[in-house]
Structure to design on (451 residues):
């Protein structure tokens, strides 16, 4: 039963996300989802909620294998390193940093969300990054209210990347997902520490290790590259001293022979080291969040399931764990509005408590706010900085994700009530490959009021 359910959800993911590559029939099916939903059983909820747009929920599963989340399979995923859609023209400069502490941002999640109506959005992925420091997130809370011409200093950032069907990086045919798929072109070298950002700085000794920042170079040096680097340099030197046209005397010939052996050995060592460096030093940092595959399901399916039996067998988080978050969040509330808002939020989330993401890209879609306070007004959502057009809600990230990331429930630990992503309604083109969109973070009220 469990397997069937999982198989189903996998089918759905492929159905929802990648069919646009296949044929028009399925696209149409996709388009009809809203109508099916509206006719059904959302009558009961209507007193509390305005009209509901159909929402797609994101759930997490351990990746099937090491290949299943690579970029040419167009994954939706959390943690680990980003599967950059455009693997060459990555965000650079200040975009990659927390504006508050200046540290490189950490990869939170990515959502593959193509828009079938336009060729330019045939492939489309949104990437969310944040600073793991709660102090920065609390500062960010005040910054996000700033309106142009003031520019807010953010510790959470989201980027939109899109590609037409015909592009230099991927086949125009859908991936077979049988292990034979390959990207068409290579990507740029990534930072050996975080595996996230472009590694455009090179270790000056070995010239093999790449870094996004001096900070990450220092971290890598301290945690093992110091030794690794010496070995790499040593093997390079043996290459240099290798006499190419041997000596004449026996001893010199002997020396020559020895150096050839040493050179051969070190060449082998060199390769292994380089390989090691590339293979696992790419994620040398132990602080990156654990990697999961995101599986999608329609929220409407949970309406019918839940009415029959509450037994949900594929729970990854224990019920008690979820209840604890709920309680700790609830205890933070002050006003009645927040309590009321929380009650309806909890009721809706309760249908599928393990959801970590709610997706609904539509001009009329609204996020499901856990609290009434700390919500942006329309004017707080800035216009698209590339086309000047309006932005609309696209998805929200729930704090349940922190359970999967093993973030502790301490005072200083990272926490949020909801992270809401707004993107250009037109999903416009721009000269830059990764377009920064807008993100709003709602915290539970007492946390924000801490001076
Ligand atoms: Zn920071
Ligand atoms: Zn880095
Ligand atoms: Zn080095
Ligand atoms: Zn735009």
């Amino acid at each position: 039963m469990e397997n069937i359910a999982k198989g189903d959800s996998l089918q759905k993911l492929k159905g929802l996300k990648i069919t646009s590559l296949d044929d028009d029939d399925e696209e149409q099916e996709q388009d009809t989802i809203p109508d099916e939903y509206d006719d059904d059983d959302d009558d009961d909820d209507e007193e509390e909620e305005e009209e509901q747009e159909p929402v797609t929920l994101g759930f997490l599963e351990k990746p099937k294998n090491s290949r299943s989340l690579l970029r040419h399979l167009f994954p939706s995923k959390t943690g680990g390193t980003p599967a950059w859609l455009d693997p060459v023209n990555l965000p650079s400069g200040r975009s990659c940093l927390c504006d508050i502490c200046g540290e490189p941002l950490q990869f939170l999640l990515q959502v593959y969300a193509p828009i079938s109506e336009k060729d330019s959005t045939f492939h489309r992925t949104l990437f969310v990054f944040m600073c793991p420091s709660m102090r920065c997130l609390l500062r960010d809370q005040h910054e996000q209210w700033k309106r142009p011409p003031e520019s807010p200093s953010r510790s959470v950032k989201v980027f939109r990347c899109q590609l037409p069907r015909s592009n230099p990086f991927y086949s125009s045919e859908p991936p077979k997902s049988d292990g034979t798929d390959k990207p068409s072109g290579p990507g740029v070298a990534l930072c050996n520490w975080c595996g996230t950002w472009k590694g455009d700085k090179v270790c000056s000794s070995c010239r093999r290790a790449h870094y996004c920042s001096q900070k990450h170079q220092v971290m890598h040096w301290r945690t093992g590259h110091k030794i690794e680097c010496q070995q790499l340099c040593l093997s390079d030197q043996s290459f240099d001293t290798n006499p190419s046209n041997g000596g004449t005397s026996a001893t010199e010939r002997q020396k020559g022979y020895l150096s050839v052996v040493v050179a051969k050995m070190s060449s082998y060592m060199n390769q292994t080291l380089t390989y090691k460096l590339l293979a696992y030093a790419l994620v040398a940092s132990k602080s990156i969040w654990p990697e999961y595959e995101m599986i999608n399901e329609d929220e409407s399916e949970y309406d019918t399931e839940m009415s029959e039996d509450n037994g949900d067998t594929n729970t990854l988080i224990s019920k008690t764990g979820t209840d604890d978050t709920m309680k700790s969040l609830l205890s933070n509330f002050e006003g009645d509005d927040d309590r009321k808002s929380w009650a309806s939020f909890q009721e809706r989330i309760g249908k599928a408590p393990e959801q970590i993401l709610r997706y609904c890209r539509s001009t009329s879609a609204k996020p499901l706010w856990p609290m009434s306070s700390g919500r942006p007004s329309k004017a707080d959502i800035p216009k698209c900085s590339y086309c000047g057009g309006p932005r609309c809600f696209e998805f929200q990230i729930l704090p349940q994700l922190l359970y999967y990331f093993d973030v502790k429930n301490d005072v200083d630990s990272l926490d949020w009530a909801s992270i809401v992503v707004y993107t250009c309604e037109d999903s416009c083109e721009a000269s830059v490959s990764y377009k920064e969109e807008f993100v709003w973070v709602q915290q539970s009220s007492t946390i924000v009021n801490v001076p």
